[in-house]
Each structure stands twice: as structure tokens, then as C-alpha cells.
């Protein structure tokens, strides 16, 4: 069994990572998951969170918001609407994220209030995590 | 015969013009490289997004529950034309060719009895379309303050368009932009974005059966708006590269024309100078002979 797989992280503006990795932690919409090589084919949407990749060279962490992950036999690719290496994340960026989520919640319609409420709590959790580890 | 002083001034002014066009050409070349890189880097995202959406659309598209963005609102009476042009001129036929194409489309739709609405992106398109279609232009997006087009700009345009679609302001949306072929060739392109169409590439293997988390429908609903934003972003990037390419070749032509003009004027200048000298010599010689 192969113990590494191809991993790509792309945002609309650039390709952030493309490497052989051994595991990927994905903040999926329905919960976090860890993907190892030879995972069953899966497509999942992302919630705002921290994506962590573990490769033989070490670990990398990225802040991702929105998008999806596609896991297939060839490897894993994550398409994030916005992705930043953790080292580039600043308090300002997190503040803007939190503010956007709050604003969206205020304008929420009855159908979308659940999803937007979840987004606010996701972002809050993200901010807390970043705050702790920064 | 124009006098020497005038000719000299003229040559000098054309030389200055040539310096300016030359500088603009070099600036455009540098910006083109950057715009091309941006377009290149945006490509993997757009390709994968299209591939996944294409697969999803194929499996869900036929069903009743398919989202409106994919299946359309059920009619095609109101068309929205999103005309994307540059913020600046001096780039050859770049802006005009997009506008011409959009105008032809608008006339065709109107002749068929459809209602046409417009959104203009970029100042030049608005200026050209204002007189004819000012009444039906429902929004204008100003990118003149934006140095480098980012995904956020595309997202903004997309959410504006999607919001209008949700409130039933239009049925079909088409974007107009220039596809970058190479520095000398840009192709005006019309692309329908709503209802969404994704050309899944033939080599995308549909044999892999994916699990979907959450369900296919939810994913599709979440991804379609992003897909629209991605298409707009890709179009903005193509447009950016095309604009710089068009400006570069336009300025290259202008520089060359200025060079030709300087040569022609210099020859004329030398001829008149020689004629004056010859005249003076004749006067002196005939004066001497008369003695």
C-alpha cells in the first residue's frame, strides 16, 4: 500500500501547495476528517477551518474558507475559495471573517439562518483556535 | 514649402510621441507578463471546479430537484448581458470589439422580442453603450481603483448577479469578454453563465463513483454560485491579459508609425535645407558673374 498520495491545494488566485503527503486533515462541512492514501472517492464541502497536511518533510497548516475537497484514487485536491498559509494569517483577517459572518447572519432569511448561524460558530471556533496557537 | 523651423518642431514633437508610446508599450509588456501569470495560476482552480460541477450536473441535472441556477427559471424572456471591458483606452480594438459583439447580441435579442438588461464592467464599455442602452443598464461595476483583479472582485460581481437572479430580474445571463489567444490576437467571447453550463472535459473520467458529503443536491447548491463566481473570475483574468496584449500591440504599431513619420519628415527637412543652400549659392554665383 502506498503510504503517500498526491495533494493539491488551490485557490482561485494561485496554487498554494502540491506535494506528496501522508495525511490530510480536512475541515469538512459535516465534521473534520483525516484522509490517508487510498481513501474511498469522496467529495465534501468545506467549512471555515484549518487544513493540516502531514508529509514526510513535516506538517503545514492553512486557513481555508469555503470550497470543497475532492478525494479520488489519484490523490486529494482541495479547492478553497480563500486559502492562506497559517503564517500569513493575521488578527485583521480573522476580524474581517468574523464580521462578514455576523453581517450575513443579520441579513439571513428563514431558510438560510441555520447555515449562517453555523458559519458564525465555525468562524468563532476558528478564531479561538488561531488565537490559542498563535 | 514649409519653413525649416516648423519642420524641425514637428520632428521633435513626433519624437516625443514616439517616446511615450514606446514607454506605454514596455509598461504593457510588463503588465501582460503579470496578467498572464495570474491567468495561468487561476486555471487549475477553474478547471477542477468545472470538472466537478460538470460531473455533479450530469448526475443531478435531469431530476426535478435540480437547482434553478442549473435548470434555468423556466423561461428565457429576460436576458442579462454582462459586458466586461477595460478601464482605459489606447488599446486598439480591445474595448470596441467586445462592445460590438454585445451590441449585436442585444439587437438580435430585441428583434426576437426579448427584454434585454445590461451590466457593464469597466468604464470604456459603459461610455460606449451609454447612449444606446443607458436606459436598460441596471448596474455598473467600477474597477478603476483596482490595481490587480482579485477573486473578491469576481465574487462581488457574482453575488450581485445571483441576487438579481434570485429575485427574478432576469432568466438568462451572458458575459462578454475577450479571450487571450496571443499578444496579437484576442477573441471576443460570449459565454452563458446562467443557467450554468459546464463543459466537462471528455477525459474527465465519470467512472469513479464519489461519495458525497453532505448529499449531491446540497453540494451542488453550495458550489453552483461559486462556479459562477469562478467563471467570472476566469473571464476577468482573460480580459486583463487581453487588454495588456492589445495595448502592447497597439502601442508597438504606434511606435513604428511614429518612426516612419520621423524618417519621412527628416527627408523633407534635409531636402528643403539643401534647396535653400542651393538657392543661396546660385545667388552668390550669379552675383559674381554679373561683375
Helix proportion of chain B: 55-70%
Alpha-carbon distance between the two ends of chain B: 31 Å
Structural class of chain B: alpha/beta
Counted up, domains of chain B total 1
Helix share, percent of chain A: 25-40%
| Radius of gyration based on Cα positions of chain B | 28 Å
From the spread of the alpha carbons, the general shape of chain B counts as elongated
Arithmetic mean pLDDT of chain B = 87
CATH architectural type of chain B: 3-Layer(aba) Sandwich
Quick one: how many beta strands of chain A? 8
Instruction: Report mean pLDDT of chain A, rounded to a whole number.
Output: 82
The protein's oligomeric status is: heterodimer
Order of helices and strands of chain B: HHEHEHEHEEEH
- CATH superfamily descriptor of the largest domain in chain A: F0F1 ATP synthase delta/epsilon subunit, N-terminal
Largest sheet of chain B: 5 strands, mixed
End-to-end CA span of chain A: 36 Å
What is the number of helices of chain B? 6
